[in-house]
Amino acid sequence: MVLREKVDMSQCRQSLRQTCKKVRFCCACHRDRCLLKVPLQARGKREPMDAKQLADLFERLCKAGKPWAAALSLLQLQCGERADCARRCTTAWLHHIDPGSAEPPFICVPSVNRKTKAREVPLCAPFAVALYGWLHISPLTSAKNSQWPFTAPVQTDADQLLFPGLSKEAGQGKGCRRDWRRPVTERAYLASISQVAAALRRERQEARQELRTHLWDDVDLSKLGTHSLKRSSVCLLKDVCMSTAVVAAICGTTARTLDKIYDAPTRKRQRAAATDAFASLMSSLRSASVSGAGRRKMLFCCACGEKPASDAWQCCPFCGKAYYDG
User: Are residues 241 and 304 in the same domain?
Assistant: First the structure.
């Protein structure tokens, strides 16, 4: 049974009553042929975030009672990976995150799906220290009495999931419990970010009504999702003038895909490019305009006799006559 508004009535028999609300078909092939073809609307690229917005997202996820999502967003940002790969991270992936280690920290990403390239990704030292502290010293807590990791301390000798999901034990009346064998779903991760995006949308609307600026003014919050972290990672790396080859090695994505899909011409990069390109030109123009080669010093205006306030004046401020007629 299919609703009438979803059916192309020209493909059905003429004797079908006009008052019917649902249509029944003889087979699946006939049903598929009669369904209205709804054109797919392009969702567009996910919105990238700058450093201040990423820090604000982390704090808001913690305040919303999702410290695991906050930690997962940082891990995904550091690796430049998709959410499906980052959510599967285990303790075996992490290497030398102990602050006392003599080796630099890195994460060994295995090929968990067809889109993930197995590689070693260097970790930022402050992030490695923070991650080690959360896992082994003091967990990351939130305002709603929740923490990550869910059990502390984490056993480093076992291959343990960092972001285990929930499983429902049917028939036992225990509700949802932590499943230590399965990672958290992408849907749960996206729901956490969408919850923050909804709160940001309300705050931004109130700020606009009060004629105040907001940190997220230039961001399309409807396109804020889990894939925004990967795109933000690419943009932040490109903002520090990293070559495409270096970014591709970190993010495990081809250079062509980086330039076509993930990289975005951020305002910071545009401003830096404009400054580097035109700063020398403008300095030359300023030096030429004030050099005044061969110009003699003007003692008084030849029209009104008033003394000029400065040698930089080109015209008399009292009568308007040009000091230097050529």
Answer: no
